[in-house]
Amino acid sequence: MTSTRVPLAGLVLAAGSMLLVTAAAPATYAVTASQAPPKPDEPDEPDRPDEPDRPGKPGKPDKPEKPRKPDRPEKEVDRQAPAAPSLGSASPGAGGSVSMFVTAESGSRVVIRERAGGVVTSGTGTGTYTWWTSTGSHSYLVTATDQAGNRSRASQFSVTADATPPSLTRVDTAVGDRRDSRSRLTFVTDPGSTYRVVVDGKVVGQRSDPDARVALFLDVENGRHQVLVEVRDGVGNVASWTGSFRVRIPKLGVSAKLLGTPTEEVQKVRILATPNATRGVLRVPGEGREKFRFFRGRATVRLPLPDGRYRGVKVTVRDGNGRIGKETLPAFEVDTTAPEVAARLDRGAAAEGRLNATVTTDPGATVEWRLVDDAGTVVTSGDLEADRSGVATVDRDVAEGDYRLAVSATDEFDRTATTSVSGTVAPDPWSRARAAFAVGGLAAAGVGLVILLVPIVPFLVRRAGRLRARVTARRIERRAARVPADEVGPEEELDAPPSTAVIPNQRNRHRAVETLLQMANEHGTGGSIFPLGLALLPDERILHATTGQLFEAVDADTDELVLDGHDGEVIVTNRRLVFMGDVTRDWWTGLIDGIDHVGEDRTVLRRWREDAWSGVGYDDADVTRLYVDMLVAEQQGTRGAYLSGLEDELGGDHPSSVVGGRD
């Protein structure tokens, strides 16, 4: 309701006018909204005289009129839209969660809606908003609406959500054994995932960003074990696997091997065990024990041991979980000193015209000896092997005289010791009666032999003639084979016997090769002829001996062989080529300046600092050539390769030679 204010003077004038009208007009009642007629049963209250003003209490003056307040202006309507929300970086999380930090007008309502979809979350003002979605790429719109209902422009962003756990496949446990007591866990997951392996409630392995295939060793004690494999991807999705396995390894496997040779003062033992072995002990009976530690299952123990034979050397190994393994080394010997050798002559045997000497040295040692007379000539020699007691006996029937017996003993490690002993061998103590009896017996035997040979002599003469003719025919045949047909004269054609082609007998050659290889390995003597009167050096051995011819010289200017020669024996040793007949020649390997084969059955040689060539011919060409070639190979340092070639030849028919031929 609106009120109207009237000035006080106006009110007075109006009141006076009303009094005048009342006096002139009849009495009437005016009822206003604020005044009601009195009730009929109530008497009228008598008029009260005006109370005079009390002394000392003047009447209240009229209150001054309050100034009028101006009218308030009407409020302005808000039609301004808020600014578009400011967005941070979208953060995908586990289970497909997405988090976004949004900055918006204070008090505004923020709504995040998937493009072409519904509202995913909403809130008020600035803050972090989180929601969940499916795996894949998603696009969103973000708006802010103020309290007046004005909505901002939309901010938009895209994010790739991940609600899929990482893969965890091909989980397998391989239980350890005695050779490697560690168990092995393998599985396959997504590259870049983080894994954690828990065994019996204890984390035994974890790693970030592994390869797709994971292999992990589990060093656990014997018994049953629970395993948890947990794989987590980059946003926190988790895949897990649980299982169990049982380990039962009664004892560890151990390998112990002695290194080096028995001649070393410090022996080395190499020990191999499970890779998680930690420590071990090596016990030598009578020498105490040696503790050692492993590095990745390997250890080398050094043992300074005195000379002697050792048995029962035991190795004990322990891994990190208390399992034990043991190994006993084979018996071995430590021998750091050269063999001892001593020789003793039997004086009683020497008095009877016989040489007998006892040689004592290391058991199994090779004993080489030679008997030298007072002129320095080697009368006889040989080699023996000491028995288990270290004893070897030299026994020879020799002529009377003063002798020196030189002895050398070589043990299995090629260490040699030498000694010598001198003595006198007396003549055989035959009595005169025995000598006379012997002479008489020889005379009687001679007479009987003459009587016996009378009918045989003509046969032997005829036999010898045929043999000489056969040998002459073979020489002419070999010579004709080497001379071209157009160079043979008419007389030679008439005298030459009909020749036949020589076909090598491969079976005989193979047999000869086998014999040579056996001789080379066993250090024996080749051939069936032991030439008499050939003095050998202590380390010289006869390889082969056969009949043959010596050719005195070869013309150095024309390089033609002189065919006339001498008959005798051709001997091949490990040091030289020897001819023994009415003359003796030898060619030492160290002094040979040239060697060549001529045809199938001759070899020519040239000594150092000589111009002329000389040589030998041999009847069993196939066999002798093998030994001559081995002599040449030994001189050239290719003996091993030559023997290997012969061993290969036994497997196939292909002859081999270390020197070229000369026709």
Main attributes?
single chain, 663 residues, alpha+beta, four-stranded antiparallel β-sheet, 8 helices, 39% strand, elongated
General description of the model:
The protein is of the alpha+beta class. 18% of the residues lie in helices and 39% in strands. It is built from eight helices and 39 strands. It has an eight-stranded mixed beta sheet. Strands 1, 2, 3 and 6 form a four-stranded antiparallel beta sheet that branches. A four-stranded antiparallel beta sheet has the order 5-4-7-8, with no helix packed on it. A hairpin with a 4-residue loop joins β4 and β5 (119-124). α6 (506-522) packs across α7 (621-636). It starts with 7 loop residues before the first helix and ends with a strand. The relative contact order is 0.05.
Please describe the topology of this protein.
Blueprint: H1 8-24, E1 86-87, E2 91-92, E3 97-103, E4 109-114, E5 119-124, E6 127-132, E7 136-145, E8 155-161, E9 168-174, E10 183-189, E11 194-199, E12 202-207, E13 213-218, E14 223-232, E15 238-247, E16 255-259, E17 266-272, E18 277-284, E19 288-293, E20 298-304, E21 308-310, E22 314-319, E23 324-328, E24 332-334, E25 342-345, H2 347-351, E26 354-360, E27 366-373, E28 378-385, E29 391-397, E30 401-410, E31 416-425, H3 432-453, H4 457-482, H5 490-495, H6 506-522, E32 542-554, E33 565-573, E34 576-581, E35 584-588, E36 592-598, E37 602-607, E38 613-618, H7 621-636, H8 639-651, E39 661-662
Parallel strand pairs: 36-39
Antiparallel strand pairs: 1-3, 2-3, 3-6, 4-5, 4-7, 7-8, 9-10, 10-13, 11-12, 11-14, 14-15, 16-17, 17-20, 18-19, 18-22, 21-24, 22-23, 25-26, 26-29, 27-28, 27-30, 30-31, 32-33, 32-38, 33-34, 34-35, 36-37, 37-38
